[in-house]
What we know:
alpha/beta; Rossmann fold; Non-ribosomal Peptide Synthetase Peptidyl Carrier Protein, Chain A; 2 domains; four-stranded parallel β-sheet; two-stranded antiparallel ribbon; 14 helices; 6 strands; elongated
Amino acid sequence: MRPIGGVVHAAGILDDGAAIAMDEARFRRVLAPKLTAAENLDRLTEGDPLSLFLMFGSATTAFGNPGQANYVAANMALEALARRRRAQGRPALTVGWGPIADVGMLAEDRATAEKLNRRLGVTALEAEAALAALPALLAQPHASPLLLRIAPGETRINLPMLAEPMLAALAGAAPAAADSGELRALLPTLPRAEAEALILAVVAEEIGRVLRLPAAAIGPDQSVVGLGLDSLGAVELRGGLELRLGLQVPMAALTEELTVAALARQIAAVALLPTAAEATMSSLVEGFEPNSAIQAAE
């Protein structure tokens, strides 16, 4: 047979979930078709006169992606392999593709593709346009370039990095949360029952946004899992709630027992800390500040 002149590695699988639910088996499952396969190709072609060693990675290595810790790690490993090969004087390129609309994993799962596009604030590329960029990517000097289309005006609720100044020229400023500061300041001033009712309403609105349901159709005693919220949707929900409320949302792994009202109570426990306790904590902190101690001594 003729000698092998090039290798293209384009394998991968998804096993998404919250980081707290990840275990070694789920990491191994996603790493196997990425890193293990790429390492085998690297080893088995060591004696071949390759002019191309192309690996398909993901733009999530640069931006991160909630719910895909194992997938991000697997693609980061491909980038490390590309750098190692180049350091050895061998060809290598790992392209950090953004979402592809018409072929591949996301094309087979339109619901997941829509969620990712909305959360990342990107617009999926067509395969023809993505592949047309390959000659330019192969000609550039970097081992792991990115190729994605950032969509101005999208929510980007879980990727604060996209609001950084270095990306402003590409995407414009990320939209700010109009009500986060107002809600965060308002909640402690309301009677407890009114504040909890407001949080419950916000939770219902955000679940409705994620699931494309009217908020009125989401009852407080309904299970969030029973409503159809999966692990990716839970990550999107948490990001949306944090954006709306201006605080970190305590959200454990999804279970059948987690109702809309229970989730609202979890948030209320954080958002409605007793004012007296906060004042006590502030006075204790001030008492141990170096400046306070100096002033007291004077």
